From TrEMBL:
Subcellular location: Nucleus
Transmembrane segments annotated in the record for this chain: none
Entry keyword annotation includes Glycosyltransferase: no
GO-annotated biological processes: double-strand break repair involved in meiotic recombination; homologous chromosome pairing at meiosis; interstrand cross-link repair; mitotic intra-S DNA damage checkpoint signaling
Keyword Nucleus: yes
Any one GO molecular function term: DNA polymerase binding
Record organism: Macrostomum lignano
Identification of the protein by name: MELT
InterPro entries xrefs: FANCD2
Signal peptide: none
Length: 274
């Protein structure tokens, strides 16, 4: 685990260790293994203690940690280490005190250092924006990568079933739709598929953004003059799957049904179907 933590500056390594209930100065293999367990099974309480420690250090502490993470992610090696579940980084270490079964979150998902930090409310929006910028940069080849890694899926996996802080929820919603607007088709689909796993409540703003996406996808078909071709409607299946899984209210569901009928009528008109 030390190979993950050394990407942060000394003061922030100490903060994470203190928040995990471990000796801040210890660096032996057994202690590292214990930290892996803490970041996994008890990550909620670890996140709460990190938040408490940040609050004790003053208002600038959270931004300092964000700046530290930003600097660390400028290296692909560091980025990969911070995004990868701790159990995978510890594989091959005979001295590790944690096995794969120890490092799982709720829903059986392995936990990375980045995911643990994402659960700290003061860090959530800043980290989400940072990860979105990295995803788009990698997607557009503006961030050079050497490892054969699907960074889009790896970055988006950090958000799965993430308990959203009230003050960060609307910002993260906007950030994800920025990804959808700016990224490639595959990244758009993956981001849309994430939405039902992140938002436990379909807000009016979320529904409005999805409505706009659905209308845009249909208008693209209308201007291309190509209907009935699966390749001409690449986002529609992902959008309909998303709407099926989102916890829509009766009124929201009714609105989307009416929209679907309107879009169907538009398609039929363009195809001159009576």
């Amino acid at each position: 685990m030390n190979q993950v933590l050394h990407h942060l500056s000394g003061c922030h390594i100490q903060l994470v260790r203190e928040s995990s209930g471990l000796n801040p100065a210890a660096e032996d293999a057994e202690d590292s293994g214990n930290l892996i367990v803490q970041l996994g099974a008890n990550r909620h309480s670890v996140a709460q203690r990190i938040e408490a420690n940040l609050n004790k250090r003053g208002s600038a502490a959270a931004q300092a940690l964000l700046d530290d993470v930003q600097t660390a992610t400028e290296s692909e090696r560091n980025l990969y280490a911070m995004l990868t579940p701790a159990e995978l980084l510890s594989c091959g270490s005979s001295n590790s005190a944690a096995g794969p079964a120890d490092v799982v979150s709720d829903f059986g998902l392995p936990v990375s250092l980045m995911r643990c930090l994402l659960e700290v409310p003061p860090l959530q929006a800043g980290l989400a924006e940072m990860l979105a910028e990295l995803l788009v940069a990698i997607d557009k080849s503006d961030y050079p990568v050497c490892l054969q890694v699907n960074y889009t899926k790896l970055i988006l996996s950090q958000f799965r079933y993430l308990p959203l802080a009230r003050e960060a929820a609307s910002r993260i919603e906007a950030i994800l739709f920025d990804i959808i607007e700016a990224s490639s088709l595959d990244a758009k689909r993956d981001t849309i598929a994430l939405l039902p796993e992140l938002f436990t409540q379909a807000t009016d703003s979320l529904c409005e953004k999805l409505r706009s996406l659905l209308v845009s996808a249909t208008e693209l078909d209308d201007t291309s003059g190509s209907h009935g071709n699966a390749s001409s409607t690449p986002l529609k299946p992902a959008l309909f799957d998303c709407l099926t899984l989102l916890p829509l209210s009766e009124s929201q569901l009714g609105e989307f049904r009416r929209l679907a009928m309107q879009l169907l009528a538009s398609v039929r008109s363009c195809l001159s179907i009576p």
